[in-house]
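Much of the work behind modern protein science is quiet bookkeeping, done one molecule at a time. Below is the pair of lines this work produces for a single protein:

***
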Amino acid sequence: MIKNLKCVCLCILLSLFIGCRKEENKRQCWYLLENNGGNVGEVCDKSRAEMEAKYNGQFYFYPTSDPKYCWKIEDPFFGTFYLRNIAQYAVNLLASTSSGYTTAKVDCSSFCKWVYQDRRLNKNTGFFRYGIATPESFSLDSCGKLFVGKEVIIRETPDSVYYRKFIKKED
């Protein structure tokens, strides 16, 4: 009986070890990230062991097959922003390299992303000065109020009026 029990235990341990080795040698696609979390690109047809041998220390990496979620990121310096389709690993990396970030998974329909362009009207000359197109995420309560072409005054000074025009909604 003890001999059979030892044999069963040995078989279980051996199958676990082989299963782990199989996962390590499984060829798949990987996302490469810089140390600051910036996306470098994708590498395919490599095993974890090959990735570790080639990129360990130079880049972070995780499988492209990892589940992706939507996130609310709160930054003490830049405020709140939202991200779509980001893996847990990438968000953990972002939070670990930035002081004060807090992260939370959110429903992807709880925010929207828009591209807007700011412009400034010089009241004295009548000329406009345009800024660059800027993407930004907004909470759900603002999403229903935004549409392409909507323009709002964001501030006014004695010599200028600052406008924000919503150009396009991003998915």
Notes: The first helix runs from residue 2 to 25. Residues 30 and 63 are 4 Å apart (CA to CA). Strands lie at 28-33, 39-46, 60-63, 68-75, 79-87, 102-106, 111-122, 128-139, 151-156, 160-170.
